[in-house]
Design brief:
Layout: H1 6-25, E1 36-41, H2 48-64, E2 69-74, H3 79-91, E3 96-99, H4 108-116, E4 121-124, E5 134-138, H5 140-155, E6 163-168, H6 174-187, E7 192-198, H7 204-218, E8 225-228, H8 231-243, H9 259-267, E9 273-275, H10 278-293, E10 304-306, E11 314-319, E12 322-324, H11 329-334, H12 341-344, H13 350-355
Parallel strand pairs: 1-2, 1-3, 3-4, 4-5, 5-11, 6-7, 6-8
Antiparallel strand pairs: 9-12, 10-11
Amino acid sequence: MRGLGLRGVAGLLAVLLSVSLAACTDNGGEGEGELTIGLLLPSRAVPRWEKSDKPLIEKRVKELCPECTVVYANAENDAASQRQQMTSMITRGVSALMLDVVDPKALRSSVRAAQREGIPVVAYDRLAEGPISGFVSFDGAKVGRLQGQALLEGMGARADGGGVVMMNGDPSSPNAAWYEGGARSVLRDEVRILKSYDTLGWRTENAHDHMSAAISDLGPSRIDGVLAANDSIAAGVISALKSARVSPLPPVTGQDADLDAVQRIVKGEQYMTVYKPFRLETEAAAAMAVALARGNDIDALVTTKVDSPTTKDVPAILLTPTAVTRETIGRTLVRDGVYTIDQICTPKLRPACDRAGLTR
């Protein structure tokens, strides 16, 4: 599985534009007013789902299909709730489903139920099991490798045999193992992994408890770096380190470029995050869902194929993530319009922003 490089991203944008124009003029199949896209997101614990993905998907679906309706549900990290939400959408006869799955095994039967009703399912961000029609995400192994490489850089001389604590994601998420595998491929033979935890629900409070336990068991002087799978986990890790009065803080990784995390990076509390341009992901998934809802093929969109535990050769789009450190915030997140300097640089952070080169 390969992510898209810069040329691939440019090509994908061109294809998405052409699909957008075709979608708006396509008169075949159901009328536009009859199309409904179901959107099922996994939780509110990670800020990106509600703040970025949902509004971007809704906006793009409307651009592709002005008369289409998006029906939304959030599972609050509960697989049983997501099954019920999916059953409700199947019962109402949605034209296509975009599923960011809480637990792939638990939702497998729901995906099969959708197939029986002729409803295509696009797995969004996380690879669902069962007969899905397409998959859109970022290259998870690359995410983990970026985190591992940045952690070694942040550790400096201590990267040679230093001690690392791994704070992985929720084991029910297929992405958690994907990220962890990428990170371990970089860290192995370089550092000693002293502790490794799975963080249920990707929750900040669970990460805080795990990190507090690691500090108590190992002692702060043995912890030279922390591989945190995402920014919510990093927040819990840093809170626990500060509560234990660990100084200086060891480098801590992250993912998702949450605003709070970017501000922690500016302050020097978090070493890095992984930026995944959500606009590209949402546009690709929306184009795929609208095409499938209209009964059209998605060959022009697909860039690779992936295998799930149940299905081989799933048509897929895998995008390329980018590492962000204090030195690169301006030429990544600010340049791309994710945040303005004013959003990042509160009055209290102004001196740190100046040192980081984040000036108006």
